Amino acid sequence: MKKFIKWIFSGWMLILFFAGFFLFWEYSIPLFDIPRYILPAPSEIVLKGSADLDKLIYYTGVTALETVLGYIIALILGLGFGIAISFSSILRRTLYPFFVSIEMTPKIAFAPLFISWFGFGLMPKVIIVVLVCFFPIVLNAILAFNSLSNELTLFYQSTGASRLKTFFTIRLPAALPQCFVGFKYAAINATVGATIAEFIGSDKGLGFYISIVTGNMRPDLAFAGIFFLTCLGLSVFGFVTMMEKILIPWHISMKRINK
Amino acid sequence: MKNFIEVTELKKVFGKGKDEVHAFGPATININTGEFVSILGPSGCGKSTLMLMVAGLLDSTSGKVEFESKLVKGPKTDIGIMFQDNTLVPWRTVKGNIELQLELRGFNLKDYQEQIYNILKSVNLEDFAERFPNELSGGMQQRAAFCQAMIHDPKIILLDEPLGKLDAMTREKIRADFQKLWMVKKPTVIFVTHSIEEAVQLSSRVILITPRPGKIDREIKIDLPYPRDLKVKRSTKFIEYVNSIQEVFHKYGVI
Ligand SMILES: Nc1ncnc2c1ncn2[C@@H]1O[C@H](COP(=O)(O)OP(=O)(O)O)[C@@H](O)[C@H]1O
Ligand SMILES: [Mg+2]
After folding, report:
1. Residue B16 lies in a domain
2. Residue A127 three-state SS
3. Which of A48, A128, B41, B85 could cross-link with A197 by S-S, CB 3.0 to 4.6 Å?
């Protein structure tokens, strides 16, 4: 509780900025005579949005399921392939350049294809989320597991420790900070992937909701949907950042920001 | 009688064809048990290359390294090793880093708690056992690395410019630590350096390496009493050793 108060207090500038932003938004609508079907005031968004609350909560759950499921699958696959490629010179010369070249194509362009192949259900959305999350995770993992300092490598070799033991006591902890760069990047991609997949073809979820209400000239409800989507995105990213703090509290760059 | 460490016609060439770099040798070096031998030579002459081959961490192009007549084929594990950049990991405390050496070797940590405390105390780091490396100065980090490298009580110690990145005062302090450890436990030490004064102060014998590809120019036995404190360093004999070595390197145009 004390911490929370301290946090609020230390963030007062940001809070003030947000308050100012929403106040400006609220009062510039009547001031500049902006029609409500173009841009609704924040108060109206809250009012109309709360009338649709049940639907919004349910759709948030749908999108959250696609996002989280896809992210976890991408995490497992990305780390697995990342480690395999780091430790196999054959994979490094085959799979690695293949992944690098695919990385260049915008994965989201595959979305319509997946929808047409697999229909409107959960699976195509999860696949698209996996696709947009996998590459940042795998490429950062490869970078992470290949950047152990020369001295540390020589040091553990001179102890005669097994490969398994050095993996868990040195290689893995040394790789975690760079791995988390990929995890965080992927966490941002995840909700974007799920939303776009829903835009293209679905019958539920926040992306579906936003595209339908926008078509019905209801920007107030679209903003309500965007608000929930933002909350979802922040939760996923916040969770990954929290895991980073728990797993690698020693990481210097985080310490610097905290100071 | 066979020597403890025998390096015979050892040579290393990196790369092939146009990218070929003749880094070291061929050179022959013999070292007795308990000697403190310095390998002294200009930067890039192949000192690190030599040390890695002695440690079995790098394959030679030709020649061989033997310990007690046993050929070195893979990494030697009964050694303590230190580099210019320390091998402390940022996610462990000073104590945790010392334990890393023991854990990797599969030793029981409980049996070593007292030794860990004692070795930390010997370099005045006992109050910093629970600190992380990034909370320590460069000199303290290198002293912690010294504890990490010596905790398993190796009979062979390989030091590759471990003081290279430190300021003059800290260097002086850690040299004294090395000398103290060597005088008490009498391990066999190979100490790579490009500081003439450091080599003369610490070693029983200095091996002078020519510019790349490093070959042995000559060996100089340092006949001075231990401990080599300030008084010894001011003696004419000490200064004569330093001057004669300087002349050798002056001849090569490296100083
Ligand atoms: N892995 C390597 N590949 C190619 N050349 C190397 C490698 N390691 C060292 N060298 C070259 O070998 C020479 C000797 O290097 P090194 O043994 O590190 O010298 P020193 O330790 O005496 O400064 C240098 O010219 C260096 O560039
Ligand atoms: Mg070197």
Report:
1. no
2. helix
3. A128
**Residue A31, domain member (yes or no):** no
Out of A149, A173, A255, closest to residue B91 by CB? A173
In which domain, by residue range, is A81 found?
Answer: 42-258
Domain boundary among B113, B137, B154: B154
Domain match, B169 and B194 both:
yes
Assign residue B169 the CATH number of its domain.
3.40.50.300
CA angle B85, B94, B143 (to 5 degrees): 50
Last residue in a domain, options B100, B119, B154? B154
Residues with CB under 6 A from ligand 1: B 14-15, 21, 23, 41, 43-49, 212
Question: Which of B72, B91, B146 to substitute to test the interface with A, most A CBs within 10 Å?
Answer: B91
Whole-complex ipTM:
0.92
Q: What is the pLDDT along chain A (259 residues), one digit of tens a residue?
A: 777 777 777 788 888 999 999 999 999 998 999 888 889 999 999 999 999 999 999 999 999 999 999 999 999 999 999 999 999 999 999 999 999 988 888 888 888 898 889 888 899 999 999 999 999 999 999 999 999 999 999 999 999 999 999 999 999 999 999 999 999 999 999 999 999 999 998 899 999 999 999 999 999 999 999 999 999 999 999 999 999 999 998 886 555 544 4
Contact A169 B52 (CB under 8 A): no
**Is B211 found in the same domain as B168?**
yes
CA nearest ligand 1 atom 17, residue: B46
Domain extent, residue B96, equals 88-154
For the CA of B50, the closest atom of ligand 1 is: 17
Residue B191 belongs to a domain: yes
- Name which residue sits closest to atom 25 of ligand 1, judged by CA: B44
Pocket test for ligand 1, best of B39, B43, B48 (most atoms within 8 A of CB): B48
Q: Residue B104 is nearest to which of A151, A169, A250, comparing CB atoms?
A: A169
Residue A64 in any domain: the answer is: yes
Residue B120 lies in a domain: yes
Tokens 């979305």 — which residue?
A: A111
> Is B1 part of a structural domain of the chain?
no
Which residues neighbour B11 within 8 Å (Cβ) at sequence distance 6 or greater?
B24, B25, B26, B27, B60, B61, B62, B63
Say how many Å lie between the CA of residue B47 and the centre of ligand 2: 6
CA–CA gap between residue B164 and residue B139 (Å, rounded): 11
- Judged by DSSP in three states, B254 sits in coil
